[in-house]
Amino acid sequence: MDDSRYYKRTIVKEEITSSILGEIRTLRIYLPPGYNELLSYPVVYCQDGEQFFNFGRIATTLTRCILDDGLEPAIVVGVDVNTATRTSEYAPEGERHDAYCRFFAEELLPYVESRYPVRNDRTERIVAGDSLGGTVSLHLALDYPSLFCRVISLSGAFFDITRERLKAEDDLSWLELYMLIGLDETDVKTERGTFDFVRENRLTKQFLEDKNTALHYIEKPGKHLWGFWQGELDAALHYFLG
Q: Where is the signal peptide (predicted)?
């Protein structure tokens, strides 16, 4: 089978200057096959942009879904991160977390929406992330519910601080969450210690259900690695774009 047509897409690299973060951040922007600036598109915002493109192969996966499955064409915006400051930006207790969320909502969205024909209704925006990227994606929706209501979490790092945040919410029926966890993620080593991600995700699932979240929860064999998440991206994209 000839896979070459899956590579006939456009990926643009751009740099955005953030006054909130006090730095320049690299973006990777995927334009789907048949892209036409006169049309409008849903948009997927990815944390760990470089990894989503290089290890997650989101551009190839989405192109295949569009060409073979008739999935609605979408634009993908991957937001690169410096590994040295990743935890402080993505973890809810991190010193740069609030600034990163403000950057995302107040600078990144206007930047992308002024340059590309992405739809600006919250139901046309998807925020995606793996591990702590899933955490910050959920917190973005909780902090900016008028902007984000659809989240893809691949093995999200959901600990007590996130559950306390969920407990403070009255109703989350507006939130749509695709939540994947691998059953082999019971002993995951992170910067903040070793955690049983299966237990943490199951506890968080209960909090989300108690608040009426529109939750699509999946457990299946898999490790805390892109080798697991890459194979699950097509199902997550189908869930929101199918």
A: none
